[in-house]
Amino acid sequence: MNILVLNCGSSSIKYQLLDMAQTPVLLAKGLVEKIGLPMGNFTHKPEGKEKWTIEQPIADHTVGMDLILKALTDTNHGVIQSLDEIKAVGHRIAHGGEYFSHSVVITPEVKEKIQACCEIAPLHNPAHLKGIETMERLLPEVPQVAVFDTSFHQTLPEKAYIYGIPYEYYSEYKIRKYGFHGTSHKFVAEKACQILGWNITKKKIITCHLGNGASITAINGGKSVDTSMGFTPVAGLVMGTRCGDIDSGALLYICDKKGLTPAEAVKLTNKESGVFGISGASSDFRELEAAVENGNKRAELALDVFAYNVKKYIGAYAAVLNGVDLIIFTGGIGENNISVRKAICNGLSYLGVNFDEKANQVRGEDKIISAPDSRTLLMTITTDEELVIATDTLNLVK
Question: Which of 19, 84, 149, 226 is catalytic?
Fold first, then answer.
């Protein structure tokens, strides 16, 4: 069964086509960028064939989606003969609010609830709805499934998700911690336990999804009990361009001094902060490490702040769990950045961690990076959110 996985942003569409008949096989992937701008980009990479790139105006998501479907069936660049070979579409949906604790087949009622979450996820959910409605027009007979970033965290207890503000803001406006990256946290925790031969229901795990967006989750018995992102993805760790946790009084002070509007404050905290804001150089950790080699002290500070933040959350979540059996690193940085992992893991001996520097010399692999006598295991685990979406889609439409 061929399943098309879509992740629609406000001006972009990421996609993969996977054959889920037996062992999952990636057939093609790609990216549509700069939708609605004077000139757009389309990159299509079929497995076993050359990458195909097009530059042309892409007026809206319908045009972008049409490019994708034509590329998948193209004589030279395609991987299927006909669109009839696409049996289902799975969508990554950023925010499901309190409505969804698991993935669902998309119905008019589901679309209404995704729409209801647009007010608390204005940068993401409207784009996801565009993707759903576009596929309804282009492939009207094909079932669609919504997989939510937030659903894994719906097991958080009230004491973990309620903010210290008047309770009516929760009861009236649903202001609370929701958490994100749920598909990745769930996937890597289950994958690690499968590799280790563990029963996840008996284990305490801390998952560190570290990329340009980064979050940490405490998992007890297979369930999320706390997570670092909050009402929006800007909370928690210092990230690539997001500020992470900040004293609200400091933000209000900046807004007053600079005369910032709410929209400008959102831009400041989401696009201009994090390691980019601290370093003044880049949000790319490879570029920051190169800058450190050239003596850039602010780049060094940015990396130190990032590693310190991750270490601090690991300690906090070890307290939440009353111990930890396994700490997992995943995401672009977590899977590939040897020096950042080292900076985080040195100093965790109080948790029974014996970090193995030699084992840590690994990128993009599923591997134990703690010493054999370490009471708490450390692992790098490669994540695959698209596979999670495709798997959930397969299970629901079958």
Answer: 149
Distance CA 207, CA 228 (A): 11
pTM higher than 0.70: yes
What amino acid occupies position 387? L
Please say whether the beta carbons of 72 and 17 come within 8 A: yes
- Give residue-wise pLDDT tens across range 105-141: 999 999 999 999 998 888 789 989 999 999 999 999 9
Among the listed residues 224, 207, 156, 197, the one whose alpha carbon sits nearest the alpha carbon of residue 326:
207
60 flagged as catalytic: no
At residue 103, the 3 state secondary structure works out as coil
Neighbours of 30 (CB within 10 A): 22
Shortest CA distance to 41 belongs to which of 63, 51, 56, 52?
56
Distances (CA, A) of 151 to 49, 73, 170, 180, 235: 36, 34, 18, 8, 18
Rounded to whole angstroms, the Cα distance separating 24 from 274 reads 36
Q: Which residues pair with 88 in a beta bridge?
A: 3
Q: Which two tokens stand for residue 227?
A: 């997570």
* Radius of gyration of the chain from its Cα atoms, rounded to whole angstroms: 21
Provide φ and ψ at 367, rounded to 5°.
Answer: -155, 145
